[in-house]
Amino acid sequence: MNPGIVSLAPVTLTLLLTFYSRNIILALFAGVFAGGILLDSAQGTLFAGINGIAAVFENSWCAKAILFVLMTGSLVHVIEQSGGVKGFVRLLTVKQRAVKSVLGAEVLAYLLGMVLFVDTTVSIVVRGVAIRPLFDAHKGNREKLSYIIDSTSASVAFLSPATGAGAFLAALIGVQVSGGVISGDPFTLVLQAVPFQVYSMVSIVIAGLAIVGRKEVVSKGAVARQTEADSHPERSQGVPASGAVNMLLPLGLFIAGVFGLMVLTGDGSTSIFTGILLTLVVTGVFYTVRGIVDTQGYIAWCIQGMASYLEIALVLTLSFALSNLLNQLGTGAYLAGFGHHVHPALVPAMVFVGGALISFMSGTGGGTLSILVPISIPLAAAMDVNIPLVLGACGSGAVFGDHCSPISDTTILSAKVAGVGGMDHVRAQIPFALTGGTISFLLFLVLGFFL
Length: 451
What we know:
The structure is a single chain. By secondary structure, this protein is mainly α. The protein is globular and about 70 Å long. It has helices at about 10-20, 25-45, 50-55, 60-80, 85-95, 100-115, 120-135, 140-150, 155-160, 165-180, 185-195, 200-210, 245-265, 270-290, 295-310, 310-330, 330-335, 345-360, 365-380, 385-405, 410-420, 420-450. It is built from 22 helices and no strands. Helix 1 (about 10-20) runs antiparallel to helix 2.
């Protein structure tokens, strides 16, 4: 289909509904429906939008990404049901005497963020449950805890390709590859984009400096909230510290499996898909041998875990369908036609700002990528801009906006587990996020001219 201004309609509708309804599934479905109507009108077909959703599973990258996310839900759930998370918390609680100051608690919260990269929600919840009692025991500032947790959750996930975020980005790239917009292996492009996830790296560094420099994190007009001792022993009572192996072993298997398979096969999609599948199988055998659960019970846990991630899988499916439709409508090619008005070196910085605005207003990093990648990659390809750099700008903008948004799920959850008000957390985090965003914007300007 020849590109034209009408090709912007699905994106515009998706953005408007995202901003006003705060429902990314509704917004994406409306975008797919609108794109399907436009294709039907142009090609004389019927139900292009509905068929586009089904066609997602014909793309191996998309199918594997969706299955990977569902199995991630299974892995997270079986670890929780086995007592692995509580055992890990108990292990930290038993060793509480080793944390002799607020600084020690802050460092532990920071380091755990580097370890618990597989799932953002698990990273946030485990650290909230495990570290908050340590902060309370040493009368620490909970707003600083919420800041550390938030700044080292999504940021770390985008720097770790073997995560749901990495699989999602790789599948969106796979759509562009299968559409002939760009060439290359999607997972390899995700790996190449890691050094350009500028905001994530800057955010993690700033959080580390805030810890080392003993920087106070307080919302404007408030005083540091120092809490009374409250160790919440009931949260992990009755769970042996040795139960931590039920969490640490599966995570270790997953990490080793994915990167080992990558070395052996060089196939990113197969590696992450096979890696998590093998992890679930071996974990099931391990739990059965230890008498934690029988085979039937373990399978039930896996299914329950998948069910809890169905919403995410639906978002992925609709995102991939919309991306395919936008390629067929020529949306990216149409926008690339305006390239002669913009210097190519400015594209990464523009993508970063655009991603930040979408993410801030929608409160969803994943939804931001589903809108931004199908537009920015064709634009970058047409203007001969470094593709991994633009992918890094997409991810950086999504995380930056997410950190600043009061309606972001990670923002709300980080505040909740740390025991502070949502807006108190946002106001306390904003100065650090804006500092990181400004530095990132300048770096994308520089990188745009030199790469």
